[in-house]
Amino acid sequence: FYTIKIKQGFSLFTDFFRQAADSQLKIQEEHLPFREFEDLAHLANHMVDDRIQKENLLHRDELRLDTLLRLGIMENFSLKDKYNFTLQRIIQIARSEEGYLALVNKKQQHVTIISHYKADGTRVAYQNKRELSKNIYSGGLPGQAVIRKNASINNDAGKKSYTPYPYRHKISRHLDVPIFNSGAIVLVAGVCNNKSDYDNSDIRQMTMILEGMWMHVLKTRSEKKMARLEREIIAVREAERSSIGRILHDDLGSHLSGVELLSKALKRSLEKDNPKQAKQM
Predict the structure, then answer these.
(1) CB 3.0 to 4.6 Å from 190: which of 176, 206, 257, 263, for a disulfide?
(2) What tens digit of pLDDT does each residue of 70-114 get?
(3) SS3 letters for the chain?
């Protein structure tokens, strides 16, 4: 009897390890015939959990790289489209229900919501445009991120039972990350309501995506500025050519015409008195 029970236990583990390479199957401890197998089952299940975690991290890395690559080929898209695309990818990578992007002005006094989405792709609309821009001291979570000047995680927000700006419903946990450029905060991104706690890996993933996006934004702005300067240079060059053309036509042209008429008159006068000089003239 015991031999059969032991054989059943080993068969359970044999099947588990056989399938472990291709699935995320776990051992149900209540199916074990002896308590002596429980420690082994615990280790086996821990192995599965570790594998799931590593696969999730790998998937998040792949999503982050794909996001940055896609931003690089979105040359014909507006900045608004790029902001929306990046935010939706951040929500997906951070496994969150909702998220926002907010720009910070140069004086570091105001935050302006530029994108706000839910995990299902629904855009959060603002009926009043004044709701989009806030002073940092009344700007809720993005404003606090500017004041603190660093990323923050709150996995106990549900205990406080509050609804901070820009969210419109109670949240259980949230993560807010500011992005710096030349020592000043230029952008704040936030996500909320992950089913599990946020951690430093979420901060790293969001920071890398946002910094990559901001470098792309700066590149796009510099290219637009260069194109504008080139157009201005061409316009100035054409204006200078037109000015020179007018000078040649109105001033030098008239002067040369007068010289030509006087020369012809002098030639006709010399033809009577001195034909040789007239020919030279």
Answers:
(1) 176
(2) 888 887 888 899 999 999 999 999 999 999 999 999 999 999 999
(3) CHHHHHHHHHHHHHHHHHHHCCCCCCCCHHHCCCHHHHHHHHHHHHHHHHHHHHHHHHHHHHHHHHHHHHHHCCCCCCHHHHHHHHHHHHHHHCCCCEEEEEEECCCCCEEEEEEEEECCCCECCCCCHHHCEEECCCCHHHHHHHHHCCCEEECCHHHHCCCCCCCCCCCCCEEEEEEEECCEEEEEEEEECCCCCCCHHHHHHHHHHHHHHHHHHHHHHHHHHHHHHHHHHHHHHHHHHHHHHHHHHHHHHHHHHHHHHHHHHHHHHHHHHCHHHHHHC
What pLDDT, on the 0 to 100 scale, is given for residue 216? 84
Q: How far is CA 157 from the centre of its chain?
A: 27
